[in-house]
Design goal:
Blueprint lengths: L1 H35 L5 H10 L3 H6 L1 H8 L1 E12 L2 E12 L4 E7 L13 E6 L2 E5 L10 E5 L16 H7 L3 E12 L2 E11 H7 L2 H13 L4 E8 L5 E11 L6 E11 L15 E2 L13
Parallel strand pairs: 6-12
Antiparallel strand pairs: 1-2, 1-11, 2-3, 3-4, 4-5, 5-6, 7-8, 8-9, 9-10, 10-11
Length: 296
């Protein structure tokens, strides 16, 4: 009898133990559900972190991240294709995203025969304006050409042979659809690659005062206001590389010109010294057509 009583007591203790473990499991589950909203789930946090959040929202904020970074060095490349001919214009310089000022040295491609070497064009970028030196036949060597960017049918996304780095970023404010492609590297820096389509009219509505009118002009002047793009952002949300594909109608022969404009940004915090020319240093005459086909 004593042995049977001991056996029954052990069975009762085991049942109580199982009920206690079950209660702990339920309590743990409740706590985990509550903490999921705070990022408790390791798996959920990893999935969220891979793309840095909603791609459209991330891209629309990219220009603000550049302003917070202050400044950067930049390299640009503009590939233009029309009638079976393809040319590439390259630039290099610095840009101050806080003050919206920059300086680029833009190099035109050689003539088809490869016998003529063009002098680089010095471009000064300012809110609403583009200043160019060594730009166009008939312009004295010591004079600058000033262009109001809002007066150009492409908003100076193409005309200067290089897209203003901040304008390139503000195009992304018009991001309508976007997907996260994956992680890769740009210039040795790990980045997130996004692909999407921006709307220039939408970008203009959200742009800074210096780019608002220019982007609105581009929305009306391009063959389509939709701009496909690939953007590469670092873990701080700053653009390291962005490639836009523009399309506009060449007024001289009514043909469509396809343009791929690439901007690379690096060395954030670089010193930027830009002095705009005085009024007496600005040329007021006519010049030849530029890389984008506009005459000034």
């Amino acid at each position: 009898m004593v042995g049977r009583e001991r056996e029954r007591e052990r069975e009762r203790e085991q049942r109580r133990g199982r009920r206690g473990l079950g209660g702990l499991a339920v309590a743990g589950g409740v706590v985990c559900v509550w903490l999921v909203g705070s990022g408790c789930s390791g798996e959920g946090a990893a999935v969220q972190g891979t793309g840095g959040g909603d791609p459209v929202a991330v891209l629309q904020r990219a220009a603000d991240r550049l302003v917070a970074a202050g400044s950067a060095k930049a390299r640009t490349a503009m590939e233009m294709a029309s009638g079976g001919t393809r040319v590439t214009v390259r630039g290099e310089g610095v840009y101050d995203f806080e003050r919206r000022f920059g300086r680029l040295e833009v190099r035109l491609p050689q003539d088809p025969a490869g016998t003529s070497e063009h002098r680089p064009i010095t471009e000064l970028l300012a809110p609403g304006a583009l200043f160019m030196k060594n730009r166009g036949a008939g312009v004295p060597d010591d004079k600058w050409v000033r262009v109001e960017t809002a007066s150009l049918s492409d908003g100076n996304l193409v005309t200067g042979g290089a897209t203003d780095p901040f304008a390139a970023a503000e195009v992304l404010r018009g991001t309508r659809t976007a997907t996260y492609v994956g992680r890769t590297e740009v210039g040795g820096t790990e980045v997130r690659h996004y692909r999407g389509i921006a709307d220039l009219a939408r970008a203009a509505r959200g742009a800074s005062d210096g780019n608002k009118d220019a982007l609105a002009a581009a929305a009306d002047g391009f063959a389509t206001a939709e701009v496909p793009f690939d953007a590469y952002l670092d873990d701080e949300g700053r653009i390291r590389k962005v490639r836009h594909r523009f399309s506009f109608v060449n007024g001289r022969d009514e043909g469509t010109v396809d343009v791929a404009s690439t901007t690379l940004l690096y060395d954030f915090g670089a010193a930027v010294r830009v002095r705009l020319p005085d009024d007496e240093d600005i040329y007021a005459g006519k010049i030849a057509a530029g890389p984008g086909g506009d005459k000034n």
